[in-house]
Each structure stands twice: as structure tokens, then as C-alpha cells.
């Protein structure tokens, strides 16, 4: 192993540890981020690592943006802004898979999988982190009624615009790093946006929803007010991490398959 490779591995390790120290990641999240970064670098080099870095840095910064305003969402969301290993795997697992696949059997199609998965993750994160700041409450796609900000399976105009911007950023960054054509960029952008929409659909119809038996608040948590909550919707094993992973992986594979057909 050459000195350049050791330096890159050291950089990934330092970046992961620093993210943990800055409370962007929990210890388990920093550990998962290290191996995710290694996988992406192994398959796509420094350019792939840069693309993943754009997703991680923008999503982490947005999670801190107006954090005081978002504190009330702690009643709804299962987890806080510091990501654990499951959240890292949910958003970066498909990218890591693409990196390993491209390392073992190089093929341009794996770059498309990488880009779409990160565009989907970025689109969903931007929608979540910025959508909750909308002046109007979102509308549930299941009930077509307005629901509290941060509710899974709900959309707003501002959140949808943020989702499109997040996907477009990854598509354009991938273009600047790896090159490509308009069709390729359009594929990444549209499937990234589709991943965010798929996440919303899964969140509305399949993600487990709970209700506190004491204060009646609807939440993603299995415990609230120091008391176990009552499941009122979805499947018990389908939490937000599972929804994120399924949506990212599905649109990446669908995008790869359609691109190959065309």
C-alpha cells in the first residue's frame, strides 16, 4: 500500500472522528461513515469521496440550521440530528455498495447508482431539514389533511422545492467531477427526486407510527412520556431508517436498469 493510499485512509478516519466530536455523528455513526467512505473511495477514488462529502456536509449543516426552531420536532422524530450507524447506512449504504461493486467489477453503470443514491438521500434530507421551516403546515398524502411539521408522509411546496434543489446539487456536482451528458444528469436529478417522493409514500403508508397513551401526541418513538407508545399505523419493523434505505436503493437500481435499456 502506497503512501498516498495511507494518507487518504487517514483523512477518512480523521474526518469520521471529527464528525463524531462535532456531534454530527454518534460514535457508531462515525464508525459506519469510515467504512462507507472507504468503500466509495475504493470504487470511485477521490472524486467519489468528494461527491459523498458534498452530501454529508450539506445535510449536516442543514440539520443544524435553525436548530432552535426544529427542537419541537423532538416530540415526533425517533432520532436527533447526530446520526447513528443505522442512519449512515440508510443514506450511504447504497453508495457503499456501488463502490464495492465498481471495485470488484468496474462498470460505468455503478457511477450512476452512486450518483442517484446520493441525489435521493440529499433530496430527502433537504426536504426534511428545510421543509419543516415552511410557514404552512404540510399536507399528508394519505389523508390529504394538514398535519404537524415533520410528520412522515407529508409534503409542502417549500419542502418539494428543497428536495429538487438537493437532488440537482448532487447531479451537477457529479457532472463536474466525472463528466457526462445532459441525459445522464437528467437521470440522476429525476431519479434522485423520485427517491424523495418514494420516501414520502413509504413514510405515509408503511412506516410505523405511534401515539403516546398519556398526551396523545403522534410520534415515531416507541416510548413517550416515559411510557411505551401505542402503534397506530404502518409496520412495526419499518422505521425511518428502513424507509430511507429502501427508497435510495430502489430508485438507484431502477435508474440503472432503465438507463441500460435506453
UniProtKB/TrEMBL annotation:
One GO CC term on file: membrane
Segments traversing the membrane: 6-25, 32-57, 154-178, 184-206, 242-261
Pfam families cross-referenced by the UniProt entry: DUF92
Topology of this chain in the membrane: Multi-pass membrane protein
InterPro entries xref list: DUF92_TMEM19
Subcellular localization, as worded in the UniProt entry: Membrane
Major localisation: membrane
Family, per entry: Belongs to the TMEM19 family.
Record-given protein name: DUF92 domain-containing protein
Organism of origin: Mesobacillus selenatarsenatis
Amino acid at each position: 500500500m502506497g503512501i498516498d493510499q495511507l494518507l487518504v485512509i487517514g483523512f477518512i478516519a480523521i474526518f469520521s472522528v471529527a464528525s463524531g466530536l462535532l456531534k454530527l455523528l454518534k460514535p457508531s455513526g462515525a464508525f459506519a461513515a469510515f467504512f462507507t467512505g472507504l468503500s466509495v473511495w475504493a470504487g470511485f477514488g477521490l472524486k467519489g469521496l468528494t461527491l459523498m462529502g458534498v452530501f454529508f456536509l450539506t445535510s449536516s449543516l442543514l440539520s443544524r440550521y435553525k436548530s432552535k426552531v426544529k427542537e419541537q420536532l423532538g416530540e415526533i422524530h425517533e432520532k436527533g440530528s447526530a446520526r447513528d450507524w443505522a442512519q449512515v447506512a440508510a443514506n450511504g449504504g447504497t453508495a457503499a455498495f456501488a463502490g464495492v461493486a465498481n471495485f470488484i467489477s468496474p462498470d460505468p453503470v455503478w457511477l450512476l447508482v452512486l450518483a442517484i443514491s446520493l441525489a435521493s438521500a440529499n433530496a430527502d434530507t433537504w426536504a426534511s431539514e428545510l421543509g419543516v421551516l415552511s410557514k404552512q403546515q404540510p399536507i399528508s398524502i394519505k389523508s390529504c389533511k394538514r398535519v404537524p411539521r415533520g410528520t412522515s408522509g407529508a409534503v409542502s411546496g417549500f419542502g418539494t422545492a428543497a428536495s429538487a434543489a438537493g437532488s440537482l446539487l448532487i447531479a451537477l456536482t457529479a457532472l463536474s467531477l466525472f463528466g457526462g451528458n445532459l441525459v445522464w444528469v437528467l437521470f440522476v436529478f429525476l431519479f434522485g427526486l423520485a427517491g424523495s417522493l418514494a420516501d414520502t409514500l413509504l413514510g405515509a403508508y408503511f412506516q410505523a407510527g405511534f401515539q403516546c397513551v398519556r398526551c396523545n401526541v403522534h410520534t415515531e418513538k416507541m416510548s413517550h412520556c416515559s411510557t411505551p407508545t401505542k402503534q397506530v399505523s404502518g409496520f412495526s419493523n419499518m422505521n425511518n431508517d428502513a424507509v430511507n434505505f429502501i427508497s435510495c436503493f430502489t430508485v438507484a437500481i431502477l435508474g440503472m436498469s432503465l438507463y441500460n435499456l435506453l
